[in-house]
Amino acid sequence: MTQAEILVIEDDALLNTILADSLQRMGYVARNASTLAEARHALNEIEPILAILDARLPDGEGVDFLELLSDTCPVIMMTAYGSVRNAVAAMKAGAEEYLLKPIDLDELEMVVQRALENRTLQEDFKFYKHQDKRRNRHNKLMVGGSSALHQVEDMIRAVAPTDVSVLIQGESGTGKELVASELHKYSQRSQRNFVALDCCTLQEKLFESELFGHERGAFTGADKQKKGLIESAEGGTLFLDEIGEIDATIQAKLLRILETGQFRRLGGLKDLHANVRIVAATNRDLEQMSGEGSFRNDLYYRLSTFIITLPPLRDRLEDIPALTQHFIANHSFSRRIDKQFNKASQKQLMAYNWPGNIRELRNVVERAIILSGESRSITPEHLAFCGSLKRHQTSVQLNFESEPNLEQIERDYFHMLMKKHAGHRVSIAKILGVSERNVYRMLKKYGAGE
User: Fold this and answer.
1) Whole-prediction pTM value?
2) Would you indicate the residue range of the signal peptide (predicted)?
3) How many Cβ atoms from other residues are within 10 Å of residue 117's Cβ?
4) What's the CATH code, domain 5-117?
């Protein structure tokens, strides 16, 4: 762990020493600066948790330095000019607290603690607001009593209390994020944040900024410092979903975190400490990819210290009745009516291959609940599977007025698959032998067709 450092910016040498000694007794390490220039130099070397800033310094006004400083950490402004106007101006400029000179050391301790607690509460509120919807959406999918599910639960119990990296393998829709959440729940990090990032959803630079954060001026539009998800997960768990999609540059930076526990923000020069447990998930064969060179071999071995492989739904069909009841019980519309799947519809559910796994089952159940209306019984006519949609499509031929190039063939074939499989990206990805992310890119490139 890195030491908690507080930056004291005060040109009075005696007061600077007194403040540093007082902070040391509180359990912090003080870094001293007597000018704004020295403070800027210090910020290139350390990442303070708090700054105590004098309002007037030999080379400038402290309030003019507040905007840059408050992007990095909370700031306590000191002033010998004890007017309400000065205090209000400091708070508006970004100060967390203010102190009047001469400094009361008991008040100093109280104000330091309050400033740090306020910043922690603000960051936690932002994090939970961002993550709450995701967590609620995935909170109870591990339902069932199959032996395959019990094996997964046993592995979770075994590895959760440790701090090793875990790689979760499984097809799309099998509940990989739920397993990651359970690993966090039963770990020694459970009181800190569980931070999830889908590696498929962002472009390279945005992904890097989201994960590592960025410094002010790192790129066009970066007008403020931004802490990344690694810092949001401080002391907790960082879950990287579909890690097989990240490019070589991010792979190298992620490997450095696993090997050294250090990283840098985008555009940054300081090494920061990453106190996180990394859990990754993929629907791809990373071992094969590492052998082929499309995924770093050394990163694969770092991530795969412990592997949990989730079974597809077709290998745990006995869990379907419990899962369907769970989805019915948690659907707002069905709470008014005690809905049940009749025997014929249950038979169809058990006979289907479920290429989209639990996610597809949930969608089928929710659609059936809506289509069944006020009826208590859900019958086969209320069910709509990806496979049943295919049977009602006529075959589509690729026709060209002249000899097409490869891009035209790919475009028309993609449109044909979109039509034939009703836009079901999981099925299309399997047919094409690519990831869902690549299907999404093709959708953006070629559109959905007519």
Assistant:
1) 0.63
2) none
3) 11
4) 3.40.50.2300
